[in-house]
Amino acid sequence: MAxxxxxxxxxxxxxxxxxPEKVAITAAxxxxxxxxxxxxxxxxxxxxxxxxxxxxxxxxxxxxxxxFLQRFRCDDPDALEPEFDSPFARLEYAGRDCFDVSWxxxxxxxxxxxxxxxxxxxxxxxxxxxHLHPV
Length: 135
Known about the structure:
This protein is of the alpha+beta class. The protein has helices at about 20-40, 120-130; strands spanning about 55-60, 65-75, 85-95, 100-105, 110-115. The chain is globular. The protein has one domain (about 20-130). Strands 1-2-3-4-5 form a five-stranded antiparallel beta sheet, covered by helices on one side. About 25% of the residues lie in helices and about 35% in strands. The termini are far apart. The protein has two helices and five strands; from the N terminus they run H-E-E-E-E-E-H.
């Protein structure tokens, strides 16, 4: 029997997109935010002194993941923070034009709903799947 040994195989999990592709992904997501999410889920800001209220919908990179966030404000003088971000959907870069789409659960965990979809399909899923909508 031939000698065997363990070897480390680098996986593509967690790989970051090349800079030109990252710029293109960011531009597509920013257009999606401006044309779809903000008009639909943030048509006007309604201040409240008793409750947190949404003031913005934005996106940010975190490693190889592009997260969609909803920013809330609280006008209560006893609030710990006047503003905070709450994520609601995430695109995880898996390869060239290949993403996993995840939903942020109330438990603080990300739950992958769709695997290996194109950027166009991922944005369409965020638009149509109620789990991936902001609060």
